[in-house]
Amino acid sequence: MARRADVLLALLLVLLCAEPATARSNDATPGVRLPAPGAAWDYQIGGARPVPTGVQVVVRDRSEAPAGEYPVCYVNGFQAQPDQARFWNAPRRRGLLLTDGSGRRVTDAGWGEWLLDTRTPAKRARLTAIMARWVRGCGDKGYAAVEFDNLDSYTRSRRLLTRRDNVAYARLLTEAAHRAGLAVAQKNAVELADRRGRIGFDFAIVEECGRWSECEAYADAYDGRAYLVEYRAEDWEAACAAVGDRVSVILRDRMVTPAGPYRGC
Question: By the 8 A CB rule, do 228 and 247 touch?
Answer without folding.
Answer: yes
